[in-house]
Amino acid sequence: MRMAPSPSGPLHVGHTRMAILNDEYVKRYGGDLILRIEDTNPKNIDPDAYHMIPEDLEWLGVNVTKMVIQSDRFDLYYNEARKLMQDGHMYVCTCPREEFKKKRLESIPCKDRDNPPEKNLELFEKMLDGTIKEGGAVAVVKTDLRHPNPSVRDWIAFRIIEARHPKVGDRYRVYPMMSFSVAVDDHYLGLTHVLRGKDQLTNTDKQRYIFEYNGWKKPYYYHYGMIKFPGIKLKTSVMKKGIQSGQYDGWSDIRLGTVRAFARRGYRPETFRRYWINSGLREIDAVFSIEIFDSINREIVDPTAYRFSFVKDPVRIEIRNMPEIKAKLPLHPTHPEYGFREYDVNGHVYISGQDFSAISDGERIRLKDLCYIRKNGDNIVYDGIDMTERTRIINWCPEGSREFSVLKPDGSKDNGLIEPKSSGYRGIAQLERYGYVNFAEKDDVAYFTHA
RNA sequence: GCUCCGGUGGUGUAGUCCGGACAAGCAUAUCGGCCUUUCGAGCCGACGACCUGGGUCCAAAUCCCGGCCGGAGCACCA
Fold first, then answer.
1. What is the pLDDT of residues A1-60, one digit of tens each?
2. Residues 170-229 of A with CB under 7 A from strand B
3. Above 90 in pLDDT, residue A197?
4. What's chain A's average pLDDT?
5. Rounded CA gap, A134 and A149, in Å?
6. Which of A79, A136, A153, A443 has the greatest number of beta carbons closer than 10 A?
7. A278 touches strand B (CB under 7 A)
């Protein structure tokens, strides 16, 4: 099995499906999982991606057994090309770009198509040594000019790009097209099974010719359907532009759809795995269901998430006639062994502005794990401590709570107070009646995970 | 337009290859009840789907044909 991203940036949620599914197949049936970095277009490479991609995979728990980089293998591709030319399956075309396209569309052979192998090999060397400049020639795989899909007819395998490659510099000027290098690598790397999106269907058809000309055994191909990710920013080039312009604070900005952004928000690797296993390998196109994704994550995270009280848009209230109470709240309702949050309360607490304005006159409500209060006109009065009836229960923060913000993936921010006991906590917590957040870096700000 | 591939509840899927125990399972969402000193937690219940028309067959979600709808590809990108 293999996965083959191009190094234009770190992995995003769209990549995780192929990563997880390939990994899962190897786990279940054995074999190797090869990570192949496809950097055959020097114009589309972010040097940082060479290390970000393996990092992201490691975080996801994907066990890569072998890694290869295509830019290390150009000599192999050139030799395969020479072999195919020798056998008359490939030629070098010197037609102008437009003319080549037009002829192919009309199923007309180009003037170079029937050149003898010697001529093609000679021209190919001229491409390699720089005699022919960018745009001057391409190496083409001979297929079937009457193939119903024009892009499968005599497809281009190598072109000249006069640009500096971030990894190999200007050592090469003739770059293979993805369709070619993939076919060669899939064979020499011994791939038996290939899982890829059905956007690759045409490429599979193109690559077929390479396997047949060489008499190689083709891997089994599975093409899964495309997934839509509504509202998630995935386009690497767009994200990159946003980072450069300062709109985002980096690849892990929580507004982005990168794996690192999801990690920062508090999603767990296991969530990705369970979600994609559940989705399977159908050929049907589907919509990414953030609802289900969140629910999986919630299930994973909830048993260990500490509970804290966060009041948004706080209002300080004075509770009349309230005795001093020592409040004791569990850090986790089903795990008393995690400990408690204890506060002395005498007459003053903060509640959220939203809760405050929702209390109607005369209503009795419960401050969680504290006491009853009742609203009498403009006053809030103490109304007993023992649980006597079921009323609405709201959460509160004691005096000494600190200012706190939650950053949300839509770019918005909720401000309020959080109870003191949360100080120093790192990881995912449930803010009672609010949602789960990740205390990733600091005490006074956390990232919103999900409700 | 051309080539190929698909269509199961709101969403994600199981079942389709090899027709029968599928009056279609699971999850999520929604609604209701119970429980609970948070909850979007737990428990119980409800809700809700085989795109459509024809054919084959004792029997069709499953096989065949047409239609409709959707997607992917049609680069000197990967």
1. 899 999 999 999 999 998 999 999 899 888 999 999 999 999 999 999 999 999 999 999
2. 175, 177-179, 198-203, 225-226
3. no
4. 92
5. 27
6. A153
7. yes
pLDDT, tens digit, 9 for 90 and up, residues A99-122: 888 888 888 888 899 999 999 999
Q: Is the CB of A302 under 7 A from strand B?
A: yes
A163 touches strand B (CB under 7 A): no
What 3-state DSSP class applies to A25?
A: helix
The per-residue pLDDT for A241 is: 93
Q: Which residue has the tokens 């903060």?
A: A350
Q: d(Cα A111, Cα A90) in Å, to the nearest integer?
A: 14
Scanning residues 75 through 114 of protein chain A, those with a beta carbon under 7 Å from any atom of strand B turn out to be: 95-97, 100-101
Protein CA at A24 to nucleotide C1' at B49, angstroms: 30
> A194: which 2 tokens?
């290939």
pLDDT tops 90 at residue A386? no
The radius of gyration of chain A from alpha carbons, rounded to an integer in Å, stands at: 31
User: What is the rounded (10 degree) CA torsion for A376, A378, A383, A385?
Assistant: 150
H/E stretch holding A223 reads strand A220-224
Amino acid in the structure at residue A181: S
Nucleotide with minimal C1' distance from the CA of A394 is B38
Whole-number distance in Å between A3 CA and B48 C1': 39
* Long-range CB contacts for residues A152-158, cutoff 8 Å, separation at least 24: A152/A202, A152/A205, A152/A206, A153/A104, A153/A107, A154/A104, A154/A110, A154/A113, A155/A179, A155/A206, A157/A81, A157/A90, A158/A77, A158/A81, A158/A127
CA of A274 to C1' of B10 (A): 22
According to DSSP, the β-strands at A413-418 and A402-407 are: antiparallel
Q: What is the DSSP letter of A404?
A: E
- A432 CB-to-strand B distance under 7 Å: yes
Q: Which helix (H) or strand (E) holds A260?
A: helix A259-265
3-state DSSP call for residue A113?
coil
pTM comes to 0.92
| A144 CA vs B3 C1’ separation (Å) | 14
The answer to whether residues A104 and A144 touch, using CB atoms and an 8 Å cutoff, is: no
